[in-house]
Amino acid sequence: MSENVVLQVEGLCFAYPECGVLNQWSVALPAGLALVRGDESSGKTTLLRLLAGELTALAGRITLQGVRLSDAPKAFAQMVFWVDPRAGDLDKLTASGWLDSLPAHYPLWDAAALATHIEGFTLHEHLDKPFYALSTGSKRKVLMAGALASGAPLTLIDEPVGGLDKPSATYLGRALAQVAGQPGRVVVVAHYEALPGVPWGTVVELNS
Questions:
Q1: Which label site among 5, 38, 162, 182 has the fewest CB atoms less than 10 Å from its CB?
Q2: Selection from 1, 5, 6 nearest residue 153 by Cα
Q3: Could you tell me the pTM of the whole model?
Q4: What is the mean pLDDT of each run of 10 residues along the chain (208 residues)?
């Protein structure tokens, strides 16, 4: 793996019983922002779950900063931020309770960045609410504030603008641009189109 590659994926294969998704899929991502673009059912979320180690590939290798997922799953997991925005795992937690739990998991956690994102996403009034009481947009904003502040070498964000109002979508673009230059970190965003003004370093197309 060359020095500037943070995430190396080689020959990834995955299929559901009813359909194939990835066949010998490979990519090498340097530090910066990577967009995984594709239509509905093209496998964007499945790919993120594979990269997070939440799903197990049928074949292939995933290596993050020299750590191979199959060889050291715990060490690998400690370098990844991933929360499925559609899952209900966090429903009973308050937004602030969840955010307060994150620094213990992420050595590169940036408290100042979190404060900036809370302000930018106008989250103050929602912090004491449980996740189940949040709107789709507010829930995604909380998750993205945590993701961007985590400093995780591999940060995975799925369909970021779902339910977002225009000011929050505009702030998201600025926030992504700010993390684009962080060394040793790749932020992978899955979306059906490129977000305006975001300096994508890599764009990967998935075909359904």
A1: 162
A2: 6
A3: 0.94
A4: 82 87 92 91 91 95 96 95 92 96 96 97 97 95 97 96 92 94 94 88 86
Q: Which residues contact 5 (CB under 8 A, 6 or more apart)?
A: 28, 29, 30
How many residues does the structure list for the chain?
208
- The structural domains of the chain, with segments of one domain joined by +, span 32-55+78-205
